[in-house]
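User: Assemble these into one structure.

Assistant: Restating your components, then the assembled model:
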Amino acid sequence: MNIYLDIQSVSKRFDRTLALDNISLQVQEGEFIFLLGPSGCGKTTLLRIIAGLEEATTGRILQAGQDITRLPPSRRNFGIVFQSYALFPNLTVFQNIAYGLENRKEMKQMVKTRVEEMLALMGLQDFRNRYPAQLSGGQQQRVALARALAISPGLLLLDEPLSALDARIRANLRIEIASLQRKLGITTIMVSHDQEEALTMADRVVVMEKGRIVQLDTPEKIYHQPATPFVADFVGLMNFLPAVVFASEKKQVKVGEDALSLEQDISHSNGQPVTLAIRPEKVQVVHNNMSHHNILKARVDEVEFIGPFYRLHLLLGGKARMIAYMPPQNGNNEVIREGMEVPVFLPPNHLRIYPGSVSKVN
Amino acid sequence: MQTTLTTEKIRARALLKSFSFTEDHLKRILILLLVFWLLLGIVFPLFPLIQRSLTDKNGNWVGLANYVRYFSTPALSISFSNSLAVSIATTIIAVVFAFGYAYALTRTTMPWKRFFLLAAMLPLYVPPLAHGIGLVYLFGRKGLITTGFGGLFTQLFGWGGWDINLYGFNGILMGEFLYVFPQAVMILMVAASLADARLYEASDSLRASPLRTFLTVTLPSLKFGLVSAVFVSFTLVFTDFGVPKVVGGNYNVLATDIYKQVIGQQNFEMGATISILLLIPTVIAFIVDRIIQRQQAAALSSRSVPYQPKPNRGRDIAAFTYCLLITLGMFAVIATVFLASVVELWPYRLNLSLKHFDFSTVGGGGYGAFWNSVRMSFYTALIGTAVTFAGAYLIDKLKPYKTLRSIAYFFSMIPVALPGMVIGLAYIFFFNPLRWKLGGLVIPNPFSFLYGTMAILVLSNIVHFYTVSFMTATTSLKQLDREFESVSESLGVPFYRTFWKVTVPLSLPALLEMGMYYFVNAMVTVSAVVFLYSPRLKLASVAIVNMDDAGDTAAAAAMSVLVILTSVGVRLIYDLITRGIARRLQTWKSR
């Protein structure tokens, strides 16, 4: 695989605040990369710098081997879709898609052919003479995509293109965009604050926090092996428990008086406070006191029926709380009620360990 | 060896590229041009004005001597206190009445609301001078009311009319009331329409009395509107020239004093001094208003529910009667102007006659002046709209020269604080001389050819009414998606193409509004152009002044009628066009 976009130590300073702090990122050709993070993490700034809409304070950006750091957007090679779509309201769907083509002094017939091609690709043939205001949100989004792709850019930039849509349309468009991207094989960078979007669509996810990259991995790794408590908390739901390293060579820690084994190596010395993390769906409520390892005693504080599963709010010793998802059919048909004492099993392969005490994490 | 050659080649190519003319260069040049024209039209002309107020007739520096002389000569300094007195009185009365009117329009369910709204706006299309003339025909020495309908009352009732002592304070007060009332109503209506219905519902549900609701909900929500109305009214009255010129009599105010000093006595230094005095309160009012408006922006909640008044018979009848009386009063004055222009000899021979519309026997310039005014207003509308919109676009949508663009924005705000008299006089000093003297330096004036031409009249009008148009353009531009420019850039489309194909079509309503505003104001204004017109290029509004001065009041009324009809006509054309494009705009409007 070739490196198509090479971002080298890019920083961006707005007056006094450092919006981007030494960002380096290499994007493979044809890859679908997500910039994920809460608002203000710098993801949009990074996208705008890649587009040339903002200028990097320091650092370099290479696109297909060419240094584009100081090039104006018009001399770069990308298409962009904004959150608002920024469709020209006074131009028809056809004119919007043709907008970037007409300027390239391409022959009229060629423009028409290309626009028709894009209309067919997006399933917009019936809407060519409509104005944007006469389209649904999803259709507008497709027009914006078609307009960006019509000029055959080497790079597609998507700035939260789905966040203005309602949930159902968003789920459909997610699949549509991802398959379109794969079909065209166009290198794509999408900005999002929606972790579900990132997990379902991306080849690789860049999680950003306060202007830095905190993790760059595949969606699976991001979810199952979050690099920091921040990533763990931002992507999906995570339980955090205070623990103390008990026997680092045996990969054991203690929560209260109970010992727990991990699969992950422990680099901390014995006696150090650490934070354990486990996803709610990995926590198992067990009913018989079979001699499992990794059992904690918990009291059921609240039971919520969600539909596909129950959400249990569990109280451990001290102030620690935990959430567990439990399928309605739990095998032995025993009903769990509020106030019950239940043993919970924390599988060693799903326990993650982070340095520091739990209060810092939450 | 080879590598160095290639790097050199690359460097040379990069150098060449950096010299080639790009879009960015064009943007920078346009912004520089904008700043240049704002400096030339607005900022630079103010310097010779200030300079002249600090020198004597021979151009020698005298410090504040002119100001000292002004305030130590009672015949002169009386105009400052007169101006203050009449401005404060008018402001209080106009804002109180306008508050009632706006309240009736927004908070009651009285009938004829649309009519009352249009009626309140009618005086906007009337030159302030014409209000004065209408008052003269009603309350002047031979006025309808003064003489008791030409002696008719004495015959019928043995009572001979009512002299209100029009010329002086009373006349100015009444004329200025008509002039500023629509402006105050407009500001207060906008403020009232922003009220949040939920606050009223909360107040009702807490069983607050109507008075308590009025004091705790209504008044606070209108606070900013009231302050704004007060400052705008004060500034308008304080700087107006038309009304005091016609009905001021011996009651000197600053604006008429400047005119007397400059036109009557050719005392430019004293004219400049009084101009600066005229400028000070308006600048203070402007600054205070800006600060308050900024606070308002912060206080406004983003999602308020519009207030829907409920019927209340007693209140609605009272509101209707109130509005009807005010409307009748305003109509009476304007109708009098129309009537006076078509009767033979007011108020004695009331048979209809069009002889006053034959301006050949009176001075002022007649139809030539009228058509000059129409031409001037047309050019002002056309060029003014283009220049103002382009200026707002460059400031709001382009990225280069951030500081320079904020300076340009600041310059664009200045004209609203400049009275027309100040602009007119400043333009004389700046554009008239063949050379400028800057300290010991003598620079030939490259713009002196403009003096006495149509161009300088148009320029002064554009500057005079620049800020309001500029704000209209800016507000409209800010409503457009700010990513239009980014998308165009990403598609490799030059900004000027997107400007033409997207920005301008989408801003059509704002452009038309600006054009209409420029036209109507250029048509009725007298204060700036009275110093700048030339005998070869007379104007309708100036003709009204001169005919009135010469005692040809009926001809002045006739000319006023022509001006009013033209302004209203342009407004009607504007409405037609706006309605025509409304349907098309509807298909563009996003939900």
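The interface with chain A takes residues 22-24, 481, 483-484, 486-494, 497, 501-502, 505-506, 587-591 of chain B (CB under 8 Å).
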